User: Fold these one by one.
Assistant:
Number 1:
Amino acid sequence: MTAITDLGIAGLRDGFRAGDFSAREIADAFNGAVAGAKALNAFIIETPDHAIAAAEAADSARAAGELLPLSGVPLGIKDLFCTAGHQTTAASHMLGGFTPTYESTVTGKLFAAGAGMLGKLNLDQFAMGSSNETSAYGNVVSPWRRNDGGNAPLAPGGSSGGSSSAIAARIVPAATGTDTGGSIRQPAAFTGIAGIKPTYGRCSRFGIVAFASSLDQAGAMAQDVRDSAILLEAMSGFDPKDSTSLDVAVPKWEANLSSDLKGKKVGIPKEYRVDNMPAEIDALWRQGIEWLRDAGAEIVDVSLPHTRYALPTYYIIAPAEASSNLARYDGVRYGLRDLPEGANLQEMYAATRAAGFGPEVKRRILIGTYVLSAGYYDAYYTKAQKVRALIARDFEEAFRRVDVLLTPTAPSAAFALGEKSADPLEMYLNDVFTVPASLAGVPAMSVPAGLDGQGLPLGLQIIGRPLDEQGVLNAGLAIEQRAGFTAKPQNWWAK
């Protein structure tokens, strides 16, 4: 018999509705799994009482025949989402002890749909990082290990590394993530799970701690494509509290899932064949092309000529917006206040920001402040915005010819913790395949598709037209069914 904690959203939902187990049994099983996985450091705080309260409400609702879409399903919540009455830190000392009095729109929708919360998941500080090593609460550890006998702990990807590690370890069935330049898709690829970044504006940003406002987007992380569709459907929808929220209907993504791609065209962008790409990733990409062809799709070569400028463009725009957004953390209104004896206001600002922000956050604030300064604004920020428009136009041109694009998700499998942290530029290169879709605001998903020679997961990325999450999910399902990815990490972390 399958253990409760091995089930994803669909399995838990359907088993609960069929009476195979109670919601309280589900909550107890996952609360126990979370409590027994401290070695992963995936959670900043645990909230077992929240999960139990939601479970008891679900059991009562089932008895009354009044089930909600996520009744009986507990979730992990990335600690970038404000949760009323529960600490929200963005993994930074700057927000240590901050307890919101309001709920983010995304978590509010999930809880209204019946979900419980197992806890707040660790992340890179203010979502800035690709390895979950910048958290003020310590790095998250991937549950995966290389099969060559080496025990070096691996990065779970970032910034949503707590989410990816917890799902891969089966201590949560699914979790929220946020994606600014690949922070859902890259950790999903590193840990062998599915993760989707929807069209910019699909999910409200209200109540999500801001990094780069024109790029940040909430999304779903889960064991597979179906669970991703279920979770994204519950998270999405127009929100008048978010000026960038799209006033469009939320489709029935799960009900319309289909792996039949007959009549669809899949584009293969030549610019994603980067120098020194590992042969295993190139081979998996070619295999993915064959899987989609087998599903009935026509394969078409396309060009996205400005792709090579995407990474430098992103690392001008994102730090610039971060510099502006993080200016609010000054020790005056909320969060940390460091007030040395005899200090004036400016000295308090400096002391608070020096103590509250970590090195990577400071680096990006400095970069952003520089490119926004009077002498460099046009040379850097204005020019980057023009290139961003060209990148978006490349996608528009490609989608006149094809329905979705297929690329690798990341240029490598998971690397060891500490392996790249001394070289920020090398770390930034992890986002080379994910950043273009973020700059264009189009939906994109990573699906687990295979293992490398050391037994570590590799993912394939599907990129779609704006608002065509269905096309992305369907292509992801076609890959998922043909890849047959069932590998799980060995349970070394449980006590």
Number 2:
Amino acid sequence: MDIDTGAGLLHRLTSYSGAREWDVPIDDPRVRHDLTPNDPETSPPQVKAYPGDLPVTPLPRDLPDPGGPAADVLSGRAGPARPLDAAQLGRVLFLGAGVVRTMVRDGRPMLFRAAGSAGARFPLEVYPVTRGVEGVDDGVHWYDPVAHALVRIGPPAAGDTTTLVVTGVPWRTGWRYAERGFRHLYWDAGTLLAQLEAAAAAFGPRLRTVFPDAGVTSLVGADGVHEFPLALLTLGDGEPAVTPTGPATPGGDLPPVEFPLVTQAQRAGDGDGLGSPWPIGAAVEPSPKSETLDAVIRRRGSQRRMDRTKTVPLESLTWPMAAALRGIEIPHWVAVHGVDGVEPGIYRWPDLEHPIVTGDLRSELERVSLGQSLSADAAYVVIAAVPGDDLDDRSYRTAQLAAGVVEGRLHLAAYAVGASASGMTFLDSEVPALLHEPGSLVTLLFTCVGVPEYQSKAGGGPGDPVAVRRVVPRLVD
């Protein structure tokens, strides 16, 4: 990866170092210094808005729960195939991007989606491009997560398979994380796609991260700067319906705040062709008993406090990891603090017999994760990273998204076995030494898994989110 251009430059200039505070930008003219992070006066809208004269298809609010155990779905053993109709499509969309919880913070309402997001920024939009869905006209639609409805924004696309286009809005996450928010777009997209993929298991979902960027951007009415496509998920094996046949109506309420470094990194990886779908991965056995997938998704949250005095059984590490990494080859390490039968230390997954380093590393993990206590209180911390020499501008994006997919699956798997999970950021400069790897290692994402100190309130249904209160994580001075 070229660290002087494109994605490589962005990664270098947004890497956290112990030499400065995480919220202090690096002294470089290519990074914006004129924006105030977390300024309530510039907080972007949480959802897009469209003209009121566009056709709207309300989706059924009584979701058809197929009843399949979450562990079976995550293990790759989906139930029988079924036809795709408005109710089934609505279930998939809601379990990924629907609003399930609300909170009032600083006098403003906050909307929490079914899939988690770093800093509760929720910078993603989902566009179902429908083909042959009973009860839904063929066309390009925007999913309204508040109304649980489809807004038709464009004509039917060429292609034969209903496709979900996931886009990112840089300013929504950049408002808090500045240019580093580019990474969060892909982490969050992976987390969302993990839940969409699981919810759509009966329809044979296939994920693509190589596609004609300009064409898909035009398809959904984005501009490629303030919003751009991140991934495609087809609900079946056929040709994705992503070739536009006419213009799409652009949505409003996207503040014209640009991070030139983000725009350049995204465009450096753009391409013209449609790539192959990601491999599905072999099914994992055995899987534990669990609640239904729908119940687990509604119950999951981003855990803010874990009980470091308690441990988890070995199976609560081995099965979630195996399920989370199905079909994904991104290297992962595990820092073990409290797993029954496993000596505390750091391991290169899947080898739990030969630790890289042993001993109590709670304080070190806490330091490397910017003083966030979850990395010390967790039973184990999963670290995704990849050699920088193996990446180019496009594969950098794919690697970040893959880490997000693993985090999303791991999150669901943890809740399925009675544990909890939360994603975590880190000091880039410290991770290679922690893992005994070369300094060129590109760290992608931390995921903390452990015993919850409290139980998250289950999310509500479409149009009926539950009100929750803020849980403040422990921080080290």
Number 3:
Amino acid sequence: MNLLRPTLLTLACLLAPPVMADDLPSLGDSSSSIVSPDQEHQLGRAWLSLLRGQVDQLSDPQLKDYVETSVYRLSETSQLQDRRLEFVLLNSPQLNAFAAPGGIIGVNGGLFLYAPTEAEYASVLAHELAHLSQRHFARGVEAQQRMQIPVMAAMLAGIVAAAAGAGDAGMAAIMSTQAAAIQEQRRFSRQNEQEADRIGLLNLEKAGYDPRAMPRMFERLMRQYRYDAKPPEFLLTHPVSESRIADTRNRAEQFPPGGVENSLRYQLMRARVQLMFEETPGIAAKRFRAMLDEDPKLDAARYGLAIAQIKGGQLNEARKNLEPLLARAPNEIVYNLAQVDLEITGNRLDVAQQRVDRMLGLYPNNYPLRQMRSDLLIKQGKAKEAENMLDGLLKSRPQDPDVWYEVAEVRGLAGNTIGLHQARAEYFALVGDFDQAIEQLDFAKRRASTNFPLAARIDARQQEMIEQQRVVKQMMR
């Protein structure tokens, strides 16, 4: 597993410009003439493809859906004008979250481990959204016009190399681009962070959360890592000081009391992450049993124990733990998906199908349910039906490499060879392997040579990928 190293710097912090006044900046300022929103969007998507291709991700549909939903909820009350967001969940237990140009939101699995409540988790993401809404990347370019887009792109490439494990080589790439400029930008990061704190607090309160969660999160981090020689990535890119905590606390106290502090759904997702990063399901089960011994009413701990037991093959025990949860909340998607997983593991596919179909009747557009239904169809040997289900899912998730990967697999099973190569091409493009993506479209074109309209569409898509590859290669120079 490739874990993000401390050298993966949050872009908004690395490129932070000075903020000279308390007033919020105008988003229509001169920075747009230097790096336009469309340029940021293109650069961010190219950077994301590089990152996806070199760093392990979490492909859990329930966790992905939760992160996306929670960030979109925050974005609705934020100052973010361009809400074309893309997400990447990194398979790392280290604490980190970051925002990259063009609406890229990155979250380490470790954020769930370190944020004990939903409000504290949301406070981190509200802060990152503030970096995006204030266009700190573009304003960083404006602050030092000598740092043109190719230089920024080279720094992003160095960051990707560091994230993929190159470590010193990645940092050398960053430093070689313009060491003096980077050093100067780091001087300005404090003001940038303060601005993101202020705007993040406003957004947190507007979204219905308790804004006091932000200083609590900062205080927790400072206490936990006060004497560590190697603090987590988040603290390296978001330095926390006593004065910053005090400033954030004072601002938070100006808001009226109240707001959401925690939720069961967040705790259920946190239990999933805790299981992901335990060495074995048995060790996770011990953790959850200990929590239940202290408080038998902890539904999240009972859920965590059940899914650990499913993974450990203890199906009867898992069934007993899921029964009271489903009795209290018979339409809770998370519990029902756990029950479906239990039935599939026990090879009771018809029972699993009945449950999934009932839940889809209640929540027809739910991503994890639709993904589970397609997985179940594949297990039932119904490849064509699974292909149709996934084609529908692609309409809402066209940039999700996990979905494209499964589409390729199911098209192969269904005998759709041209579609198989097309899906593989989309998958490879999304993870930055453009050579293989273009080659897959060559295979598809040869197969479609007698179907001129289809071959022409494939060729047009191939030309688009060649252009995408050109942009990425520019970044890597």
Number 4:
Amino acid sequence: MSDAETSTEPAEPAEPVTGWGRTAPSVARLVRPRSYEEAAAAVRACGTRGGIARGLGRAYGDAAQNAGGAVLDMTALARIRSIDADAGLVVCDAGVSLHRLMEVLLPLGWFVPVTPGTRYVTVGGAIGADIHGKNHHVSGSFGRHVRAFDLLTADGTVRTVLPGTDLFDATTGGMGLTGVILSATIQLLPVETSLMSVDTERATDLDDLMARLTANDHGYRYSVAWIDLLARGAATGRAVLTRGDHAPHDALPRRARRDPLAFRPGRLPAAPAFVPEGLLSRPAVGLFNELWYRKAPRHRTGELQRLSAFFHPLDGVPHWNRVYGRGGFVQYQFVVGYGREDTLRRIVRRIARRGCPSFLAVLKRFGEGDPGWLSFPMPGWTLALDIPAGLTGLGAFLDELDEEVAGAGGRVYLAKDSRLCPEALRAMYPRLPDFLALRAELDPRSVFTSDLARRLGL
């Protein structure tokens, strides 16, 4: 046996692993490969309970957990292998974070093509979840900008996978179940500065918000709306709409032009390990939502903001997920197609009547869907909200929303899911049979598996 194989044997005890929502921890053996060879050895040594790759742990549910099996922590594989600063191409290991890419690439005038609400996501995780951001209506999902990736499959083969192939489409959004992504080539976005030019406005209700988004989104690269899901009556769905684009060099004040591509994200103290009961009660969140809506400008244009403030405000608070207390939280995100606005209205009204204390709720418009067989986005409206997991009757309530979403031809985002049932999954993802057939051929012994895969029959 080689040294590489020896180093990944189960020397470490099993330990609890959980998603960012902290709702359903399970115990697994964590393996931390430091090279591609060690990753291959770890896959060979997974055992009967299989293994799953894991990045920085920002999947909200159980996608990167594997009870009784192995979890491959890929964060030590974090080399940026090459940068073509003329063509805007980067080749990097799967364990490289979007944060690290920004640090290295922004000074060269390049930005990641798609970023979610956190920059602490690995490239491998970005592909496996086919992440989306505020620019989906313009740029699509992350997989659209991947030119190739190397995939370690269950038979120990490393395959270079290209767009337009079944394996590419099964892996982008496939939640790590086709293999371990080792490296990727990504097409980047050119930028002149590290600041954003941002327009902000208030919408009085959900219909007003949708009308504003529909009328003007084509004029912005990035667009998102914070929505007050506790407002009722005439104010149901009131929101603060924020849209923008990368600021050009000539829009910067004189002092900022000296270092226009500086990337200096701020950082606040970490959230406390213990959070008092009642902090996320309906009255407390209602007060927060009222203040947040009232302090937003009715209409403001051209405000310059740091990238971190526009894209990743929560990253400035380490361990912000602790705010929900020991019970954790559920993030529920769904999409329904254009023409199904009545379904969106009905769900928003139901959430408001139910009094779900959510202060992190956003509405966006999706553009053309991407080819990933389990990729989440489709043309339509997507709403995401955080809900304390201990809310009485939450499971049954979300099951009812699942039925509404599926009945409208929509779907729930697997990277944030922790409680969907297999029947709902089959109704929501029409390419699921293709995914299961390819997976059965590629990995007949289910070497790659996870708590999510077992729960949903993947």
